[in-house]
Fold these 3 entries.
Entry 1:
Amino acid sequence: MNRNDDTRATPAEGAAHVSGWPFAVILLIGAVCLTYVVSQFLRNSIGVIAPDLAAELALDPESLSLLSGIFFFVFAAAQFPLGVALDRWGPKACMLASIGLAVAGCLVFAWAGGFTELVLARVLMGLGCSSFFMAPLMLFSHWFAPERFSTLTGIQLGFGSFGTLLATGPLAYAAGTLGWRAAFLAFGALTVIAGVLVILFVRDRPPGARVAERAQESFLAGMIGLVRVARTRFFWPVFGMHLALYSCFATVLGLWGGPYLTDVYGIDLTGRGQFLFLLAAGQIAGLFVWGPSDRLFGSRKMPVVVSAAVSIALLVVVAIAGKLPLWALTLWFPLFGFLIAASPVLVAHGRGLFDERYVGRGITMMNVGTMGGVFVGQALTGLVAGRFASADSVGIALPETAYKAIFAVLALYLAVALINYLRAGDPSARHFDTAGRPR
């Protein structure tokens, strides 16, 4: 691609948005969705193998939560410079710059000889995957009209979340047959393929888009612009929901779901993979359903409120009951995944707060909340779980009461975010324009 791909567009460029789905657009969407498959697999890949890692490497609950959560902490921290880089150099350049780090993370994880190497691998993975959601969202804002943004976000999340599926049953099968190290080597190869597809099929703007030259901000000025983003009206209530909504799902799927199934129900590696597969499949279905729900509700806020409220109720059920009947557990996992999957509408709500100049920084700041919230949720639940750990136990081996406490913490976390989110303006209200931006 030539350097013109990275030039900035004027707000008047709306006429350049594609109105159909030509083959080139399908290839672009497919390429960026594959990078998100990589991100979703790597972020969620600890959960199903957690009991085995804990037993093999003598990890306690706090160490296990750090191993999982460090990915999200690094990912969140990277969003600050990433937002500036997206606005300055464009989404394609950012994606290509980070793919090598993701590959390196897979290789280090596969060859790790201890806990320190595993943590280093997770750091590299977090840095490497940091652009695989925000950069596609910026591409969508360049290529498509604003009213399609929520639907496209749902497509990105939905198809990309097949990586979440791969981190459940398929990873359990691979770990049981070939070993988890071979599985991560194979996924490193898939990441290389994703990078090649980005090179071939992704460009920052549609062909023929009219662009206008403007003075480039210094990197420091771009970072200072983050302060203006944080002062945007309704930023903090929406940011707070970003902190908690995805965090509750990721903490169950990527950290405590597997140990819960083993410690409370005695389910083995294969069974853990099957139950977590149901959870991930439910979320994928939910992403496609919730994505266009803002049109059904005539609001970007109401779907998120409904999603959070029913998800809190499901978390409370496990917090009170602890061990559900097996038939109820089989229903709970896909239902929870489906109902908590309103992220596409929440992302669209956040994107609608910012004008064209601050889109990159605005959406990445929201993603700081999404990924940083997972780190917070996993760290909090790790501390809670550590209170119940036995000093002479091998691996995790937590009692049922520990998992009741974990699910209670998640329910409280999401409830606080929901109460705060109710203060946010609704993009269907008159103080927003038709694109969802403040008038």
Note: The chain has a mean pLDDT of 84.
Entry 2:
Amino acid sequence: MGIPFGRYQLLKKIASGGMGQVLLAKKGEGDFEKLVVLKRILPHLVEDEEFFTMFRDEAKITMRLDHPNIARINEFGVEAGVHYIEMEYVAGEDVRRIEKRAAAASKGIPIGIILRIIADAAAGLDFAHKAKDAKGVPLGLVHRDVSPQNILIGFDGSVKLIDFGVAKAAGRAQHTATGILKGKFPYMSPEQAEGDELDARSDVFALGIVLWEQLTGRRLFKGENDLATQRLVRACQVPAPSSVEPSVPAGLDPIVLKALAKEPKDRFADAAELRNALEDFALHNAIPTSASSLATFMQDLYAERIAKEADPRFFEEDSGLTDLDVGGLSKPATASGATVVDRNKLPPGNATQVVGTQVLPPPSQTSLPKVVAAVVVLVALLGLGGWYATRPGVKPTVETVEVPVKPVTGAGTGETPPPPQPLVVRIESEPPGASIELAGSRVGQTPFDARVEKVKLPVALRLSAVGYETLDAQLTDMTGPLLSLSLKKKPAVVRPNTGGSSGKNPDIKTSR
């Protein structure tokens, strides 16, 4: 039996971390029951304006995107003080896990399947790139985080893009701070790694990386750490896929290399051009790329798991919901109802509209559907970085930064809670050797390992280097163990010509 959460019954924990949880749930009753995915954030993170804005913007942006190759977001709301997004449930798996499972089974992924996946993902990207608001004004949307983990493949052969959480649309409230890179480093375009303005061609490049890696079975831009990866992306040295993996048809090389051109002007003009090139190649070379072929591949690869998860008892066993009391996430629904943004009640043009506060009925206690083909949907909510492996020959020095403690307000129980674990973060920069200030005090240069007590967060961070613009950021409890920042070069100073129209210095005399 699920755990009640407003109109929902929570069935299974998909993922969790310091930011919140991703949960499989059902809503409705009897024949109208439906599986959905809820992405919920911890209540204290709602107070972090930057994170909450990004969370809300993901809902607002994706609710405008109604396309078969984009996972739908149905609602954004608040229930019992907990903010959540209700997302479409995709019975399938992400490309990274499919790749690993196929390799473990010694099957590999056929070229036709790879082309189908990338072509469909390109179709979803093209729709998002060209989306407009209710007034017909282009949104200027760029995904910014196209990667194997954010492409889901359904057991029915469907392909869905997910996680527009780091997307940036023109005119929206969420702005990326100068120099702070968002996305996965191995799947960035050169201009994204430089911190420059992006357009749709940056996503084309990222999708080109996924295509190159799936064809060759190797990683294209993967250094020993994030900064090394950034340098590889900026250098943009891309070998032809057929030179790395001889089984790749040489005719694919020019398509892949055009998607991965260093200069945006040399790439496909949009994702639709990439899709058309792939489908034309498959057609002319009689390579099967149908959705039914993809579905057959998935059902064969995951036959055992599909059969297991079809059992109605699957979601009732080992649900992993025992820790829902953390952060107040297990609060029962109250009669006050929930504030909901519903995509089905948006005005024409899919402009976002708040549908007010609704008083919701008690949650249903009905049982699960008897036949459910389900799979874990992994969403990027587990953190902002991976643990850092110290480079050979560099022995980091962990410093404790003294920051004034902010007073804690609000009613308490009188008991002293155990102290939280401190934030330990390695700060790196491009270029290295940048001066670091924390809470207004200079503490060293990059690379630098800082240790800050959680009660003292957030802490102001400033990086500065000669010839570069000062970068201001913050250390918060969302900061991962590695923070890599790129400083932007100052524009060259053009000195005015004081030598008159001839351009010669009037103080210099000749013998003539």
Note: The longest helix spans residues 111-129.
Entry 3:
Amino acid sequence: MPDWTQHFVFDVEADGPCPGLYNMISFGLVSVADPARSFFGEVAPAIDSPGIPRARAVSGISFDAQKAFAEPGSVMAAAVKWLDEITKGRRPVFWADNPAFDWQFWNWYCHKFTGGNPAGFSARRIGDLDAGRRNDPFNASNWKKQRITRHTHNPVDDARGNAEGLRWVLQQMGRMAS
């Protein structure tokens, strides 16, 4: 069986569609090897913009409340340190429900506030792996039925549920023990 200790599911909550114009509010990282291991980061605004009200409402965090969060540099450095402790210096591999959205924030914040992204230049989409496994490229959401943790828009809850779904897909593929 592969060693899954360097694989993580992540989720981001943000107040708009892209970094640099909008703020990441929070993020969650969950170990695929052990979904009980997680990191929760809440970051103060990187830009002085309250974002899109509808997007901000998803997280339930007001712009004023976010201003009290820790500075992005310290939060991102702590997350990178947490990853390094688990991976023992190996490159982490990131998985997400929607990496096209989540990855851009994680990548931008890592580069801006820590000088680089320990996960490199890409992330993997859970739905694409499952769709390929089933030879059904137009159904990339079937795996979501395997989540145990409820989807709450708390990024750790959402990443944990997605890790549970990913683990199920990997078990179906014979790539992870049950």
Note: The helical segments are 53-59, 63-66, 72-87, 99-114, 126-133, 155-172.
